[in-house]
Amino acid sequence: MKICYSKLQKLMIDNQMKRQDLMRAAEITSYAATKINKNEPVSLEVLMRICQVFHCDIGDICEVILDE
């Protein structure tokens, strides 16, 4: 099972937001931002902070990809 943040990347592009902007707005660390960039799991708290920035649900920023 893997996690993919391509939906978040699309939201960031649509909102003309760079990684540093997201870090500042969501008050997340560079470590968390790097994990997101590498499609690695982050804490639920980080995901909730990002959701607050975009006024969306967790499913709008990431998705779980099941192994076949």
UniProtKB/TrEMBL annotation:
Protein name: HTH cro/C1-type domain-containing protein
Top-level taxon of origin: Bacteria
Signal peptide (UniProt feature, chain positions): none
Coiled coil: none
A GO MF term: DNA binding
Domain HTH cro/C1-type: 7-65
Species of provenance: [Ruminococcus] torques L2-14
SUPFAM superfamilies for the chain: lambda repressor-like DNA-binding domains
InterPro entries: Cro/C1-type_HTH, Lambda_DNA-bd_dom_sf
